[in-house]
Amino acid sequence: MKKSTVILISLTAIILFAGLVYYGLSHSRGVPVKLEKPKKVILEVQFLNKEIDVSKNAGLDIWQVLPKKEIELMRQVTVLPWGKSLVSPVIVSAFHNKKDIFFYMSWKDDTRDSDAGIKTFSDACAVMFPMGKDIPSHTIMMGFMNKANIWHWKASRDKQYWMSQEKAQDASEFQETKVYADYYYPFEEKEHFVVSKDIPQSAVNDLIAIRVGTLTAKELQNVQGRGFWSDGRWQVLFKRTIAISDPEVDANLEPAAKNVSCAFAVWNGADGDRGGRKSISDWVELDIR
Questions:
Q1: Among 288, 230, 216, CA closest to 258
Q2: Looking at the chain, which terminus has fewer C-beta neighbours within 10 angstroms, N or C?
Q3: What is the pTM of this model?
Q4: Digit-coded pLDDT (tens) for 166-198
Q5: Is residue 244 scored above 60 in pLDDT?
Q6: Quick one: which of 269, 209, 204 has its CA closest to 239?
Q7: Helices vs. strands in the chain: H and E counts, helices first
């Protein structure tokens, strides 16, 4: 074999070996995926001279004629416990009447999960508004190192609140669970104390968070809401006055406000979603007119 041929074969082998080493190193953590910059979603919040009485309905007829956005969700995989199921997309809409601001969320769900118990979890959804100037480029919904105002609706809380408010005639539809603490004293055969239960002020929990593990209910609950499930679909309304009582904990949703964003989340109770297990959106820019 000629010396030049041997050299050529050796060089080819070295190049192939170097290529294999490079491929192995570049794919050592999985196959690279080309990431495309997500398209910014803008939700128009227009003025509409309408009022919704949440105690009576969620104004479903109004939402049918307003412009809507279909927003894709993703599994929460940033903080434990990671989301397992995926609910997507969610349909959102919003408007204001100069006094109150309203948000609407709707998504497909084959089962109505409005009870919470052992191994039973409630359907839920939330809207999160970042607070302050240093807003991360992407949201990880209730798990990033910045302050946020979160409106959290749960089907179980909705059921408890509205059925207690309306004093529903069909008592079989709402069964209150009594909780007792039993103490035995030497001088008494039996003594029972009813444990006090938190009576919600609204079907929506108005929360503030600063970082992971700091989710706290605000002292003043400013948000009302109501959800309706029909034909395999949830429709949920959020309502809050535009005027805020405390700029430190209330999202600024004034029509003149600039750079206002929000994010959405959905929990599917039938799939075991709770806490960090949820489907989330990226930031949605609000155009409040």
A1: 288
A2: N
A3: 0.75
A4: 764 454 454 554 444 444 444 444 444 444 456
A5: yes
A6: 204
A7: 3, 16
Q: How far apart are CA 164 and CA 158, in angstroms?
A: 10
- Alpha-helical runs (H) found in 43-130: 60-65
Report d(CA 81, CA 79) in Å as an integer.
6
Q: Which structural domain range is residue 282 located in?
A: 35-169+177-288
Dist. CA 157–CA 226, nearest whole Å: 10
The dihedral sign for the CA sequence 77, 79, 83, 89:
negative
Length of the chain: 289
Strands 279-280 and 260-267: antiparallel
Mean of per-residue pLDDT scores for the chain: 80
Residues whose CB is less than 8 angstroms from the CB of residue 210 and which lie 6 or more positions away in sequence, other chains included: 146, 147
Measured distance between the N- and C-terminal CA atoms of the chain, rounded to whole angstroms: 82
Residues 155 and 150: their CA atoms lie apart, in Å, by: 16
Same domain, 27 and 152: no
Pairing of strands 74-75, 90-96: unpaired
Same domain, 1 and 68: no
pLDDT digits (tens, 9 = 90+) for 25-54: 565 555 444 445 557 799 999 999 999 999
- My answer on whether 105 and 17 are in the same domain is no
DSSP H helices, the chain, are 3-26, 60-65, 155-166
Q: Which residues pair with 262 in a beta bridge?
A: 284
Residues forming a β-bridge with 194: 180
Question: Tell me: the pLDDT tens digits for 216-243?
Answer: 889 889 999 999 999 999 999 999 999 9
